[in-house]
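Recall the central idea of this unit: under ordinary conditions, the amino acid sequence of a chain determines the structure it adopts. In this exercise we apply that idea directly, starting from the sequence alone.
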Amino acid sequence: MADPARAARLAKRISSIVASAIGSGEIKDPRLAHVTITDARVSGDLHDATLFYTVMGESIDSPPDYEGAAAALAKATGHLRSLVGAGTGVRFTPTLAFQLDTVPDAARHMEELVARARANDEMVARRAAEAKPAGDADPYRDDEPRESDR
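Accordingly, the structure predicted from this sequence is:
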């Protein structure tokens, strides 16, 4: 098993090589135009690398093409692996696997949940400010003097 720090450095180098190959247009596939490499992880033996990616839509309103991006990455894996081998200089070039990164979607979902919770808190605070006691304002107040007060 390799040093974890070496694996982390190799993962960072692999992600930068693949991201620059996709971003610079070296891979001439239009389905990769809106793909971003977000993270990379290398196995302990440095033989397998998993690259995480996100896909954006062509515009804000258009949905992302996840299937097209996955197919384009699968098609370009061999060329990307050769670029990684040339760029890293390691004895064994790791195999590349691409996995859709779900962190942005999860973060967006969490933000929606937090916004909904804040709206509910504001509604409860408004109702509490407008609320009146069901009975007397101080139900324990007694107008008659107590024996201890005499």
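The chain is about 45% helix and 15% strand.
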